[in-house]
Structures are given as C-alpha cells and as structure tokens.
Amino acid sequence: MTRPYLILKRYNLLNKNSNYKLKNIVNKNCPKCRELLFNEVNNIDYPYVCLYCDENFYNIELSK
Q: Residue 51's pLDDT band (boundaries 50, 70, 90)?
C-alpha cells in the first residue's frame, strides 16, 4: 500500500531537517517494503531512497 504523504510526515517528524517533499516521489517501488520511492535530494551516490525503511537504491536494484 503506497501512502507517500504519511511516510513523508513520519520521516519529517523523526528527521527535523529533512529536505524531502511530495514532489520528490517517483513511480518506483521499494523492493523491500513495496512503498513508493523518493528521489534522493542529498548529495549521495544513490538516486532513490525509501523513506519508510530508510534504504537507498540504485536504478539497477529496482529492475526486475
């Protein structure tokens, strides 16, 4: 079940200086929890992040 607004709200409560917004959502699902992924906004090597399970992913990890 994808519920990006609630996931983002939870993440922002736990991480006060979060830069993630709803506009950062991408149409890809996390392979671990099946929630929608966000574009990574921090300057790290991974392009996608799951804010629910707090994991980063490369594009190749999302291909089936």
A: very high
